[in-house]
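Two quick folds needed for the group meeting slides. Do the first one here.
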Amino acid sequence: MREHYTRRRFLASSGVVGVAALAGCTGGDGGDGDDGGEETTEATTEEDGGDGEDWVETDYVEMTDDLVFDPANIEVESGTTVTWETTGAVGHTVTAYEDNIPDDAEYFASGGFDSEQAAVDGYNDGQEGNVPQGETFEHTFETTGTYEYYCIPHEMNGMVGQVRVV
């Protein structure tokens, strides 16, 4: 079974991994200046259980060349469809940690996989589930609770996120 990476482990290893990951990146202005007008975000005052990250009320998450979900922790109402979009040149996946979603919740992963292992195997066997630049993945959250997810190729870089459904 894969090990779940903690923030402490990520910070300890991110320096070396981060430099290696960025070594092949090309220049650019870091953005196109267009916020797309697709989202309304509002930082909440609640914390996410001890790691100090704010929750953002939005249904849109960018997957960036900085190897992050932006924002990393979002809050939505039950019945909301969340859209993840790859905004940089590097492709990403959206893969739920099967053991870290509410008990009665539907599993989700880009590529339409019905389990975490199937998503990992699909990605490793041909990058199935990869969301390339400009493409999106959507999932509708019906069950309340907190869902943890990650990007398969960039999990070790700390590319993890959470959706809290209220």
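Then this one, please, same format:
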Amino acid sequence: MLRHDASSPAQKRIAVGLLGRGITESLSPVMHEQEGRRLGLAYTYHLIDFDQLGLADAQLPAVLDAARRLGFAGCNVTYPFKQTVLPLLTVLSPEAAGIGAVNSVVFTNGRSTGHNTDCWGFAESFRLGLGAVPMSRVLQIGSGGAGAAVAVALLQLGVGALDVFDTEPERARQLAERLRGRFAVDVNAVDEPSAAVSSASGVVNATPVGMDKYPGTPIDPALLEARQWVADVVYFPRETALIQQARARGCRVLPGGGMAVYQAVRAFELFSGIRPDGAAMTATFRHAAGV
């Protein structure tokens, strides 16, 4: 499952993977591999889908170690492993430690370093995709691995107040407490998202709800108003039901594709040591996604 193809000795060989569940539609392989080819690298990107392979969550340490022993440059990490991977790593980058979640692991000299490129990826997508929108108060749904990174990005972008809802209330409370300790901003865990929607300038879905594997919407779209903006981190399907219904209600929307591209731009540089062309990777994503 973790083999990679032989290549010309003249080419720098790089093998990386993505660890997660329900990832068969991920466009990370095509973005990474095409940019690798453009740069003259023998670059292979493997989807290691625990669902498809019938692997238990408890096998994450063994799979991560196998990738390291096989000479992988590193691995991206996605749902549901962005936080459970933390104790398996040698060291965390300052950003990953501050966020409390990892989406990129780099192997170097037998050591594994955890990074988080989701935070910058979401922020860059937000700046380019939504620009100047009202940010006095934002409701975020989800406080897991992706949610922690998105929350930090929102606070760095200048949100005035952040309400966080999670189906695991204690997790939302812990994230809110941690962020209040880092940012001089009102961050609250809310017990019921419906009431928080009405006072929000914008709403962000940072849960897997909306993926093909987890259909539906994280809130009732009927609560949304045209004055609000809505962002999602899910990008397969390319537009979730939340994004489609928010647009139909007149909201400005930000699908998850931009975050997927820009986190990949940062991850590519971590894995290869070479700065990629973000515009080229964006074009690759759009072509593959048919947008």
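Slide caption for protein two: The chain has two domains: 13-116+260-289, 119-255.
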